[in-house]
């Protein structure tokens, strides 16, 4: 082929410049394409000596996206469980204050549980009433008329749940009485399934049983592990088998009362402010405990006479108020079975206080129980069911758990139920929504 007719090659181009800008071969183009590909992917080129600024700018965004994903997908859907876990922290403070008051050598005679319950509920009631009266003025102090009977019922069953625990401590060791109360999650899950028609998943049921096993490893009650499993100073409060049997039966009544609290609060739902529910509970406990102090022979009201005792009473009331508020907020947002499963975390707080105040360090069995309880709690949180219960007979939709947006944008009726997680029947849809 003659030189005039053949096509131009790279080295045939006119070179009127001093640089090599036109001296680009196929291999150079391939290498250039590779370099630009690294730029498009947001990563620095391996052949470049300069740091890719875009990659550095994208890294904080990826971290922020991960944090926001955890916040939106894990934290917010489980905020009710977090409230309950925090409530158990305040409950542990309340228990510690109660124990210190009952064993205070400054008192000539131990303070009766009636008085401790009375003082605690006086402070709780005053805090609820002041908040609702002067801060949250748009809330009815006594609640809507149609649910007042449920509020009274919540106060009554709540009192039996608390008082039965105190009574059982008179004849049972602390470990025995505490372990009996951990039957609450299993009883609550069954009652919620039977009464409220809430789903009780296999994970929740197994999580409750496994956590109960962890509690048994920590407490090691004498009626299961025998006398040798307990420490040498854990003497029985009574050796009379009849008294122990009665105390055990009363403790089981307390389990039913504590489980009933979850069911009643779920039935009330979010139609009532959480502090109104706590207010009713505190008021009824004040009335009943005051009546007990007056009626029971030999009981008298003992006034604190040291700054330490006043501080313990004050801590008892404040922690009791915070515990009831957070517990009610959590139950309103969660299924009863999942909410009650978080009660096992109070054993972890109890061990922490045992180490800090009484210098009782847990042994290998206690550490194993802690790991089991934490693992079960995380499993219940992680495997949260996402479904909507539909009642075909009444055309009502009720949300049993939090959902992602994709599962709620299919129907206007279901979308209207996103803010209602209390299990209350929604009958206020307009005719267009029902016929959609």
TrEMBL record:
Keywords from the UniProt entry: Membrane, Transmembrane, Transmembrane helix
Membrane topology: Multi-pass membrane protein
Keyword flag Membrane: yes
InterPro entries linked: EamA_dom, EmrE-like
Organism superkingdom: Eukaryota
A Pfam family the protein falls into: EamA
GO-annotated cellular components: membrane
Keyword set includes Cytoplasm: no
Primary site of residence: membrane
Domain EamA: 79-219, 250-381
Transmembrane segments: 75-97, 117-135, 147-171, 177-196, 203-225, 245-265, 277-298, 310-327, 339-358, 364-383
SUPFAM superfamilies in the record: Multidrug resistance efflux transporter EmrE
Localization annotation: Membrane
Region of interest: Disordered: 1-24
The protein, known as: Membrane protein
Organism: Wickerhamomyces ciferrii (strain ATCC 14091 / BCRC 22168 / CBS 111 / JCM 3599 / NBRC 0793 / NRRL Y-1031 F-60-10)
């Amino acid at each position: 082929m003659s030189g005039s007719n053949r096509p131009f090659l790279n080295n045939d181009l006119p070179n009127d410049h001093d640089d090599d800008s036109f001296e680009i071969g196929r291999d150079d183009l391939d290498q250039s394409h590779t370099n630009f590909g690294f730029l498009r992917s947001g990563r620095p080129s391996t052949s470049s000596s300069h740091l890719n600024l875009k990659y550095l700018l994208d890294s904080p965004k990826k971290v922020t996206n991960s944090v926001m994903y955890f916040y939106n997908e894990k934290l917010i859907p489980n905020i009710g469980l977090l409230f309950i876990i925090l409530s158990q922290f305040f409950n542990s403070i309340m228990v510690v204050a109660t124990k210190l008051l009952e064993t205070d050598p400054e008192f000539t005679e131990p303070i009766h549980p009636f008085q401790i319950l009375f003082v605690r509920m006086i402070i709780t009631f005053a805090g609820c009433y002041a908040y609702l009266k002067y801060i949250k003025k748009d809330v009815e102090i006594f609640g809507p008329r149609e649910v007042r009977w449920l509020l009274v019922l919540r106060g009554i069953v709540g009192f039996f749940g608390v008082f039965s625990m105190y009574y059982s401590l008179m004849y049972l060791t602390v470990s025995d009485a505490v372990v009996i109360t951990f039957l609450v999650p299993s009883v609550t899950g069954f009652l919620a399934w039977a009464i409220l028609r809430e789903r009780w998943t296999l994970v929740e049921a197994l999580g409750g049983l496994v956590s109960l096993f962890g509690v048994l490893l920590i407490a090691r009650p004498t009626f299961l592990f025998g006398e040798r499993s307990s420490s040498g100073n854990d003497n029985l409060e009574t050796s009379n088998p009849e008294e122990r049997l009665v105390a055990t039966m009363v403790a089981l009544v307390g389990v039913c009362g504590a489980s009933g609290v979850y069911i009643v609060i779920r039935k009330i739902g979010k139609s009532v402010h959480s502090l109104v529910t706590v207010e009713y509970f505190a008021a009824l406990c004040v009335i009943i405990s005051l009546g007990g102090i007056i009626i029971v022979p030999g009981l008298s009201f003992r006034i604190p006479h040291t700054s330490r005792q006043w501080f313990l009473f004050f801590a008892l009331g404040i922690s009791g108020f915070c515990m009831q508020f957070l517990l009610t907020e959590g139950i309103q947002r969660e299924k009863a079975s999942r909410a009650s499963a978080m009660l096992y975390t109070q054993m972890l707080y109890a061990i922490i206080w045992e180490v800090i105040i009484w210098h009782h360090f847990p042994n290998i069995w206690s550490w194993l129980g802690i790991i089991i309880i934490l693992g079960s709690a995380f499993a219940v949180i992680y495997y949260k069911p996402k479904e909507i219960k539909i009642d075909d007979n009444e055309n009502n939709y009720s949300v049993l758990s939090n959902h992602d947006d994709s599962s709620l944008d299919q129907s206007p009726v279901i979308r209207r139920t996103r803010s209602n997680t209390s299990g209350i029947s929604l009958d206020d849809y307009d005719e267009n929504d029902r016929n959609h």
